[in-house]
Each structure stands twice: as structure tokens, then as C-alpha cells.
Amino acid sequence: VQLVESGGGLVQPGGSLRLYCAASGIIFGTSWMNWVRQAPGKGLEWVSSIYNDGSKTYYADSVKGRFTITRDNAENTVALQMNSLKSEDTALYYCATSSFIDWGLGTQVTVSS
Q1: pLDDT tens digits for 40-52?
Q2: Quick one: pLDDT at residue 7?
Q3: Per the CB 3.0–4.6 Å rule, which of 1, 47, 48, 54 could disulfide with 102?
Q4: Given this model, what pLDDT does residue 44 score?
Q5: Residue 5 in contact with residue 36, Cβ under 8 Å?
Q6: What confidence score (pLDDT) does residue 70 get?
Q7: Banded model confidence at residue 27, pLDDT cuts 50, 70, 90
Q8: Which of 25, 78, 33, 24 minimizes the C-alpha distance to 52?
Q9: Whole-angstrom Cα distance, residue 61 to residue 17?
């Protein structure tokens, strides 16, 4: 299994970014997909999950209403649209498969003026 995240970068507070995760080596349409982040000096924080077919989505309270998770099972990708970014969203963002068994290497998001 290989998960490759992309789309991170430096953005000002209030800005937006769209993260992507490309998956290979799995039957993508059978796997929940998750986004998890780790802020500097802190532990892992679950951010969002999406059901196999995209019919259900879940969000941490800290991002609810600002982040949107979607997936494209034809392209084996999952995305995280992040709006109204805050400095506290600064973190390394990982995507992970069902039960958090497989992880990517992460993409860095920095929110700063």
C-alpha cells in the first residue's frame, strides 16, 4: 500500500488549501479513508474520515464547518478542502486507510501571516 499526500504549503490565516492523497496497492473503494494531523510538539489528532462510498463523513470539532473531505474512487484519491484556516491548523497532515493501518509520509501545512 502506498499513500502519497500533496497540496500542503504556506497560507495566511483565513486562507484555503486543498490537500490530496493518492492511494495505490489497495482496493480503494472498500476502505474508509482518514486524515490525521500532528502539530509541532504535539501528538496525533484525528481530523476527518470518509466512508467507502463517500456517503458518510466525520469531522473533529476543531475543523467542523471549515474542512470538507471528499473522495474519488475512480481516481483512488481522497481530498481535504480546508477553508478559513487558522494558525492552530499548522501541522503535518497525513492520510491513512481504514483502522489507520497504512499511512502516507504527510504534507506540511503552515498557517502564518
Answers
A1: 999 999 999 999 9
A2: 98
A3: 1
A4: 97
A5: no
A6: 98
A7: confident
A8: 33
A9: 19
Question: CA-to-CA distance for 94 and 110, rounded, in angstroms?
Answer: 14
Query: Do residues 36 and 109 make contact, with C-beta atoms less than 8 angstroms apart?
Result: no
Nearest to 23 by CA among 13, 10, 11, 32: 32
Q: Are 20 and 95 in contact (CB under 8 A)?
A: no
Find cell 481530498 and name the residue.
79
C-alpha cell at 68: 470538507
Show the cell assigned to 75. Answer: 481516481
Can you give the chain as a three-state secondary structure string?
A: CEEEEECCEEECCCCCEEEEEEEECCCHHHCCEEEEEECCCCCEEEEEEECCCCCCEEECCCCCCCEEEEEECCCCEEEEEECCCCHHHCEEEEEEEHHHCCECCCEEEEECC
